[in-house]
């Protein structure tokens, strides 16, 4: 049996990636649009997909636009907004049942590609710009989402730690933009920004299902109305060294539990050959329940309600998150730093390494069971320029040696200590 692999092509500025497969009863579509994080445009870009989801030229009323999904046998449509490296990425998603399982006299995949193409490139307009009522309503939506971050203290602390660590880099910017800029965004200004965004974005259309590259190319050429040009690539994020002496940021809010977050710089990104070693390092350190942070900070010392680490492979950042009693700040910080030093000195055993590899391999295998997960994994290839299949990554992870984990640890440096605590004075 031949392995399932993505077939690739392009139509003008739109790259096309097709995974022909009969494993699923649905077609899964993702459209990625990425632009460099830019302080002057980040809020416009963030607001744009919220407005695009409201209607198109053929279906200008939101109710009719969404009812069209019901006509397509309950197709699902949505979007995500996030950062990857130094880019702000919008991902539109659409899933629709395969024609073979319903009594349809039309190609549902063709209709789905048409729906997606129209949502992106033929939005509902009035007087040559976005509909004002949609813009105003979605400004309220996105403002509430930004406000909700401060109510989620775990996420707030994570965002603030990164913002302080990267305060002179675009990566400090929130993917949702800035709340204070929303009132000044008119329907005309947003539409002008949308046209600029569409003309300069790196665009990638992914389709997974029982189809072919030739079929998708034909229908995409009809559906997407884009300016002329060639596909735009992604530049590698700038890797910076950690500060010689970590900076400490203490922020006071009305909280009952402290949030101690650490920001670290790594010397590797997803595009590097030795990235799997960094992935395993993060697993040994804090990605799993058997990892050193969880076992030593939470379980043995009982100093944290949670303790874990997270790796951003495209930016080369590693962050540690923990929730602690405020008076345990010094103790918790000391033990966290001890875990960093332990891995740096190779003080981990074969069982820790083996369990980490097993967990990572299982995660990578589970990706194969979801069309959207496979699409997301392959999109790493576009972002990094490094092509890896799931099987390639599993093999690379399983081949990582203890010495390679130590080498990865040597390239990780502590940059920022961020502590969110209460407002009591004199502590």
UniProtKB/TrEMBL annotation:
It comes from the Bacteria. The keyword Coiled coil applies. Gene3D superfamilies: Metalloenzyme, LuxS/M16 peptidase-like (3.30.830.10). InterPro entries: Metalloenz_LuxS/M16, MPP/UQCRC_Complex, Peptidase_M16_C. It holds the Pfam family Peptidase_M16_C. Keywords: Coiled coil. Residues 326-370 form a coiled coil. Residues 185-360 form the Peptidase M16 C-terminal domain. GO terms for molecular function: metal ion binding. This is Insulinase family protein. It comes from Cohnella nanjingensis. The lineage of its organism: Bacteria, Bacillati, Bacillota, Bacilli, Bacillales.
């Amino acid at each position: 049996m031949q392995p399932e692999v993505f077939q690739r092509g392009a139509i003008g500025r739109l790259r096309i990636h097709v995974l022909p497969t009969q494993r699923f009863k649905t077609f899964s579509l993702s459209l990625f649009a990425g632009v460099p994080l830019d302080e002057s445009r980040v809020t416009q870009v963030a607001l744009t997909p919220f407005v695009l989801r409201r209607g198109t030229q053929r279906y200008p009323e939101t109710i009719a636009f969404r009812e069209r999904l019901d006509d397509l046998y309950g197709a699902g449509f949505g979007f995500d907004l996030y950062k990857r490296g130094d880019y702000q990425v919008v991902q539109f998603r659409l899933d629709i049942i395969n024609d073979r399982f319903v009594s349809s006299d039309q190609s549902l995949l063709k209709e789905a590609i048409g729906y997606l193409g129209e949502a992106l490139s033929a939005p509902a307009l009035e007087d040559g710009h976005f509909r004002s009522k949609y813009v105003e309503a979605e400004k309220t939506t996105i403002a509430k989402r930004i406000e909700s971050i401060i109510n989620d203290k775990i996420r707030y602390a994570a965002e603030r730690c990164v913002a302080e660590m990267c305060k002179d880099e675009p990566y400090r910017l929130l993917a949702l933009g800035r709340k204070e800029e929303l009132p000044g965004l008119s329907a005309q200004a947003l539409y002008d920004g949308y046209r600029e965004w569409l003309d300069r974005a790196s665009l990638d259309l992914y389709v997974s299902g029982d189809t072919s590259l030739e079929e998708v190319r034909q229908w995409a050429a009809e559906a997407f109305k884009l300016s002329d040009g060639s596909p735009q690539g992604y530049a590698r994020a700038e890797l910076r060294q950690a500060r010689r002496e970590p900076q400490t940021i203490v922020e006071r809010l009305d909280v009952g539990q402290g949030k101690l977050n650490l920001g670290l710089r790594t010397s590797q990104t997803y595009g590097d050959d030795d990235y799997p070693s960094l992935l395993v390092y993060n697993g040994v350190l804090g990605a799993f329940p058997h990892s050193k942070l969880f076992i030593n900070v939470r379980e043995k010392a009982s100093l944290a309600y949670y303790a874990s680490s997270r790796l951003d492979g495209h930016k080369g950042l590693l962050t540690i998150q923990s929730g602690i009693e405020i008076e345990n700040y010094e103790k918790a910080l000391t033990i966290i730093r001890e875990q960093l030093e332990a891995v740096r000195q190779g003080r981990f055993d074969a069982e820790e390494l083996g369990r980490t590899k097993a967990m990572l391999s299982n995660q990578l295998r589970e990706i194969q069971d979801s069309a959207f997960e496979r699409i997301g994994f392959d999109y790493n290839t576009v972002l990094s320029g490094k092509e890896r299949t799931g099987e390639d990554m599993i093999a690379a992870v399983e081949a990582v040696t203890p010495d390679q984990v130590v080498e990865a640890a040597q390239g990780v440096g502590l940059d920022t200590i961020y502590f969110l605590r209460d407002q009591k004075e004199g502590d």
